[in-house]
Amino acid sequence: INETAKENNINLYVGNTVCTDCFDIYMTDVNQFLDRIPENFSPISAEMEAFALFYTAKLLNKKASCIMSVVDSKYIDKVATPEERQTGLNNMIKLALDSSLKM
């Protein structure tokens, strides 16, 4: 994925992500959850699905990766414009498809 991003001149940020189902009716205060994350973990985003992907891969002794197009986050000050969201999604799809062809 890193190699494919370089070849296609796609900016790629690699880092930790926090997995939380913040829309879950049982989570009444997402900040209370986020405050429990160790400071040295330094997440760059939050998401809700990748944990299942990585957990399943671990159970099956397989490799897995997650490509995300982050449009807003508690961890960044900038919020993506509609144009940036579209470009980011297109880049993410191209990166995933082109990377999969090299496997």
Strand-residue proportion: 5-15%
Alpha-carbon Rg, integer: 15 Å
Return the average pLDDT rounded to an integer. 84
Alpha carbon gap, first and last residue? 10 Å
How many distinct beta strands? 2
Major sheet characteristics: 2 strands, parallel
What gross morphology would you assign? globular
Give unreliable regions as ranges.
none
Strand order of the largest sheet: 1-2
Helical coverage, percent range? 25-40%
User: What class do helices, strands and sheet pairing give?
Assistant: mainly alpha
Write the H/E string, N to C: HEHEHH
Structure annotation, total helices: 4
List the helices and strands and how they pair.
Blueprint: H1 2-7, E1 16-19, H2 30-34, E2 43-47, H3 50-59, H4 82-101
Parallel strand pairs: 1-2
Based on the model shown, name its key terms:
two-stranded parallel ribbon, mainly alpha, 103 residues, globular, 9% strand, single chain
Task: Report what the structure shows.
The protein is mainly α. The chain has four helices and two strands; from the N terminus they run αβαβαα. The chain has helices spanning 2-7, 30-34, 50-59, 82-101; strands at 16-19, 43-47. It has a two-stranded parallel sheet with strand order 1-2. β1, α2 (30-34) and β2 (43-47) form a beta-alpha-beta unit. The chain is globular and about 40 Å long. The mean pLDDT is 84.
